[in-house]
Write a structure and sequence with these properties.
- There is one protein chain.
- The chain has 15 helices and 16 strands.
- By secondary structure, the chain is of the alpha/beta class.
- It folds into 2 domains: about 180 residues, Aspartate Aminotransferase, domain 1 (Alpha-Beta Complex); about 260 residues, Aspartate Aminotransferase, domain 2, CATH 3.40.640.10.
- The strands form 4 sheets. Strands 3-11-10-9-6-4-5 form a 7-stranded mixed β-sheet, sandwiched between helices.
Length: about 475
């Protein structure tokens, strides 16, 4: 019995669309009412999560979609997973929800076991964790850790000076130092103030927000698949060009670059992959210039690339300094290994809750289920199966499949269409035919199914995709 069959014996066998149009009349009515108290403009449809199960999401019109978007890549084990429901019923969960502790001041007796459970699934080389509330929060907490670490090294562990204590109250140096985080063009790291300054994918994420004057380096634009010998020489030159650009920015930026932040695969920005050579080259540069190296695994982490953490494909040596996480882990925060990243005084890395114990419990259970059911191997197997099917469609419709990418990266697969209009039409047509799929960048389709997605689900999707392509071409 497969994991999906074990978890979801009543999962639908096929998607069903009951309405003539998507969204249907009940969704439109629900959106109209919801729109009075909430911004529904980005909404695809109004979901009925009570009826959603496994790899299928149901809307309030009763339409049942095979879901390859999974709440923007954040559902690891499918909808209404029975193992997670059991955790939700536990006494520990009741305590976490009803008496939500201020963990920094009043840590619960359950906290140690929760954190140790999460650390069982930490990236290679990492053995500490600090918890947050969301992906953007995780990145901003990592920035704080990096800045405090960087300045403490300059201070050689000495206490703050009187000048630092006084100037910081006026948002002036030296207490408020001029420091930068280097990120990359097309990157997405969140929509808060500091994370927004590191984001460089779409203007809409950043408009009207005051920003730090931080550099954005060139991210490699490869020929895919990355592993093909025919593309090796071009991709090597592209890596070297971008590494040279990173080094030049570190050396010449008007304010010191304290940290470098990168996604192993730029997700929102278009599913742009970073090679092993490039990620290791960045490690070499960060060591050379004493820059903190942060890997953003918010979307790429927790299994969907076929490894628990995508950057582990690169076997970066020595390990990166900080690894941020959220989405499929349901919890959020960053992993680290050097105790020097623990701030020099209490209350420096602090807020009321210091994370969310209810989500930590779910994260630990997700990790356990992934390991118990060997879902990483399944994801790799199903991803290879799906990629081969997509290559077949690419041969039939080369004009609608540009830069098919994600080979040997589990189900973390994407491709480009010639225009944003064609991409949006394809996504709309897919939903009308029973598959919920997402986009990224301006004209890319990205696949983000749960880890319980199997070959039978892939076959359904490929058939729906072929039908939808034929309708788009008409």
């Amino acid at each position: 019995m497969t994991p999906a069959e074990s978890y979801y014996p009543t999962e639908p066998s096929v998607p069903t669309v009951l309405t003539e149009t998507v969204p249907g009349q009940f969704t439109l009515k629900a959106m109209s009412q919801l729109g009075e108290v909430f911004d529904v403009r980005p909404s695809y449809f109004v979901a009925d999560f009570e009826k959603s199960i496994g790899n299928y999401i149901v809307d309030v019109d009763g339409n049942t979609y095979l879901d390859l978007y999974a709440q923007i890549a954040s559902i690891a084990l499918g909808y209404n997973n029975p193992a997670l429901i059991e955790v939700a019923k536990s006494p520990e969960m009741i305590r976490a929800l009803v008496d939500r502790p201020a963990l920094g001041n009043f840590p619960s007796k359950d906290l140690e076991s929760m954190l140790k459970q999460i650390l069982k699934f930490a990236p290679k080389g990492q053995d500490h964790v600090w918890s947050g509330l969301s992906g953007a929060d995780a990145n901003e907490l990592a920035f704080k850790a990096a800045f405090m670490y960087y300045k403490n090294k300059q201070r050689q562990g000495k206490d703050f000076t009187k000048e630092e204590n006084e100037s910081v109250m006026n948002n002036l140096p030296p207490g408020s130092p001029d420091l930068a985080v280097l990120s990359f063009k097309r990157a997405f790291h969140g929509r808060l103030f500091a994370s927004g300054s590191a984001t460089c994918s779409k203007p809409i994420h950043k408009l009207d927000l005051p920003a730090f004057r931080w550099p954005h380096a060139e991210f490699p634009s490869y020929k895919y698949p990355l592993g093909d010998k025919a593309n090796a020489e071009f991709n090597q030159r592209e890596d070297d060009r971008c590494l040279k650009n990173v080094e030049e920015l570190i050396k010449t930026w008007p304010i010191p670059v304290a940290a470098l932040l990168i996604e192993p695969i730029q997700s929102e920005g278009g599913d742009n992959h970073a090679s092993k050579y490039f990620l290791q080259g960045l490690r070499d540069l960060t060591l050379k210039y004493n820059v903190v190296y942060i890997i953003d695994e918010v979307q790429t982490g927790v299994g969907s690339t076929g490894k628990f953490w995508c950057h582990e494909y690169a076997d970066i040596t020595p390990p990166v300094d900080l690894v941020t996480f959220s989405k499929k882990f349901q919890s959020a925060g960053y992993f680290f290994h050097d105790p020097a990243f623990i701030p020099s005084a209490p209350y420096r890395q602090f807020n009321t809750w210091c994370g969310e114990p209810a989500r930590m419990l779910i994260a630990g259970a997700i990790g356990e289920e992934i390991v118990k059911n060997d879902l990483l191997s399944q994801c790799s197997r199903v991803g290879a199966y799906m990629f081969k099917k997509l290559e077949g469609l690419q041969k039939e419709h080369p004009t609608l499949f540009h830069n098919l990418r994600g080979k040997d990266r589990g189900t973390f697969i994407a491709w480009d269409l010639p225009s944003s209009e064609q991409r949006d039409l394809l996504l709309k047509t897919l939903r009308a035919n029973g598959c919920n799929v997402g986009g990224c960048s301006t004209n890319a389709v990205r696949l983000r199914p749960s880890l319980t997605f199997e070959e039978k689900h892939c076959d359904i999707f490929i058939n729906v995709l072929a039908k939808s392509i034929a309708q788009v071409l008409v």
